[in-house]
Amino acid sequence: MKTAHLSWLGIIRLGLVQSALGAIVVLTTSTLNRVMVVEFALPAMLPAGLVAWHYAIQLSRPRWGYGSDMGHRRTPWIIGGMGVLALGGVLATDATLLMSSAPVLGVVLGVLAFTMIGAGVGASGTSLLALLATRTAPARRPAAAATTWIMMIVGIVITAAVSGALLDPFSPQRLAFVATGVAGAAFLVTLLAVWGVEREPERAIEPAEEKPPFSVVLREIWAEPLARRFTIFVFISMLAYSAQDLILEPFAGLRFGLTPGQSTQLSGVQHGGVLLGMVLVGALGARFGDMRRAWMQQWTIAGCIGSAIALCALAVASAVGPSWPLAPTVFLLGFANGVFAVSAIGSMMGLAGEGRGGREGVRMGVWGAAQAIAFACGGFAGAAGVDALRALLGDVPSAFLIVFAVEAMLFVCAAVLAARLNLSAGAAPDKRTSGRDMLQGATS
């Protein structure tokens, strides 16, 4: 049974789910982080560990994708995942407030809450991307990827601004009210956004159709050369992408003497570049979408190379010092990151349907799991690398120079991997290997 493609209104509606997801996540990973460390004077490694744990839980993404594949409908998984995420966000707030009076019980409750957050993000996010991949016309996928990610960032920005205003002056009661309001609003937006999107299942359900075990499906996906290569590319590129997250503002303060307010403004410059890069790729994708995967591959490579150049410039800035034009360099990094991120997501949406049908959710889950573990490792590795090099070398500029240079090398490696993906090749499922997708020109 052939299903209708999403209209632009349908794509925007699903983008609202990304906005809702980002709203809850930014509250739990940013606001609660600050409250634990500043207001309650808890060790910084505590919120860092909880955030890392929520990424580790997202290794379950392939399993959530499998569930939505086998059920032939995505919306129940999106709604269910968002419900778990919303409850996890409220519980994480309660756990944070409890840590000031009963630290052990608060930490135990926090682990449970961030487990729910990781599971909720995995279930809702994976199923949402799979729904977009299967219901969006190929020519619209680049613009759809840009639209949904831009809306997620907008959701994060709006939530940060509104919740920040409502939390001042800070009190535990205000935090509880704001967190509950954000979680409730996000869940309500999700319900309205997905209502009626799946009027019929993605494909007809055959009564005699056998549902293979998850382990079998996962092995099938990993046996596909293109899916396996793309997984490695996602991990390397996202490792490079996330490694500068926790060190850019400290770098601006330690090497350039920027105040906390100025470094926050610098972060805004970076995110402005990210948005511009996303908008550019999305607009061009809408105009020249007929070029599809090969076109997205070229932009992915360009974004990786541009990010590597910007990171090399930051390495030079570390050596030169305050006379270097830091803001334009950071804007360039954000712009290249935006180009890379949206084009990579666009490629991901296009590749989700390659190989045997009905496995889009599992493929998205595998790539989402690779991204999650890369984010968990990247932020920690970047910060730990700077700390270790500062202790070893006793020199701040050299420490940042080396870390930025290593990140640039990772982006170059990602560009090479992207170039070798051979996305322009056609695909034909091999019936003798249970539909495994052996692409022309692809080698294991």
What is the topology?
Blueprint: H1 8-39, H2 45-57, H3 61-71, H4 75-99, H5 103-135, H6 141-166, H7 172-194, H8 214-223, H9 225-242, H10 248-256, H11 260-287, H12 292-320, H13 326-351, H14 360-393, H15 396-419, E1 429-430, E2 436-437
Antiparallel strand pairs: 1-2
Helix pairs in contact: 1-2, 1-4, 1-5, 1-6, 1-7, 2-5, 2-14, 3-5, 3-14, 4-5, 4-7, 5-13, 5-14, 6-11, 6-13, 9-13, 9-14, 9-15, 10-11, 11-13, 12-13, 12-15, 14-15
Unreliable spans are: 204-208, 425-444
Total separate domains: 2
Strand order of the largest sheet: 1-2
Bulk shape: globular
Helix segment tally: 15
Radius of gyration: 22 Å
Number of strands: 2
Q: Calculate the mean pLDDT score and round it.
A: 82
The portion of residues forming beta strands comes to under 5%
What percent of residues adopt helix (DSSP H or I)?
over 70%
CATH topology of the largest domain: Growth Hormone, Chain: A
SSE topology string = HHHHHHHHHHHHHHHEE
Biggest β-sheet strands, sense, barrel:
2 strands, antiparallel
CATH superfamily of the largest domain: MFS general substrate transporter like domains
Question: How would you characterize the overall build of this protein?
Answer:
This protein has 444 residues and is an all-alpha fold. The chain has 2 domains: 1-196, Growth Hormone, Chain: A (Up-down Bundle), CATH 1.20.1250.20; 221-423, Growth Hormone, Chain: A (Up-down Bundle), CATH 1.20.1250.20. 77% of the residues lie in helices and 1% in strands. β1 and β2 form a beta hairpin. α2 (45-57) packs antiparallel against α14 (360-393). The longest helix is centred in the C-terminal third of the chain and has 34 residues, at 360-393. It is globular. The protein starts with 7 loop residues before the first helix and ends in a 7-residue tail after the last strand.
